[in-house]
Amino acid sequence: MGVFVVLAMLLIPLAATAVPHDTADIVPTGILLAQKSPQNLLPNQGARIGTKQAASRVKQKYQSSKILSINLIRSKGPAVYRVKTLSASGVVKYVYVDGTTGDVFE
């Protein structure tokens, strides 16, 4: 029990220093895809497809790869998700998903 309290006390200051989403150039949208949160279920800031849909499209195209993270890249252009994948042979690769059409590209 004491270890849990110490860990909680260490993590509380980290949560208070988080950067607000509206000031970041790249918005994290949920590294843990199994986590159920509203930002993983709804489209994000200019994107017509959500994080889960983008992950599904990448999984269809790269079936043997694992998804490590997904970030919505905010810029002056269209919304694009940057997806970090890990192949079965251990190669880390970034692929991209168009946030409007859902097209997957490298």
Discrete helix count? 3
Please report the distance between the alpha carbons of the first and last residues: 47 Å
Largest sheet: 5 strands, antiparallel
Structural class: alpha+beta
Number of strands: 5
Tell me about this structure.
The protein has 106 residues and is of the alpha+beta class. The chain has one domain: Roll (Nuclear Transport Factor 2, Chain: A), CATH 3.10.450. It contains 3 helices and 5 strands. A 5-stranded antiparallel sheet has the order 1-2-3-4-5, with helices on one face. The longest helix has 15 residues, at 2-16. It starts with a helix and ends with a strand. Mean pLDDT is 74; it is low at 3-8 and 14-43.
Strand and helix map with partners:
Blueprint: H1 2-16, E1 26-28, H2 38-41, H3 51-61, E2 66-73, E3 80-86, E4 92-98, E5 104-105
Antiparallel strand pairs: 1-2, 2-3, 3-4, 4-5
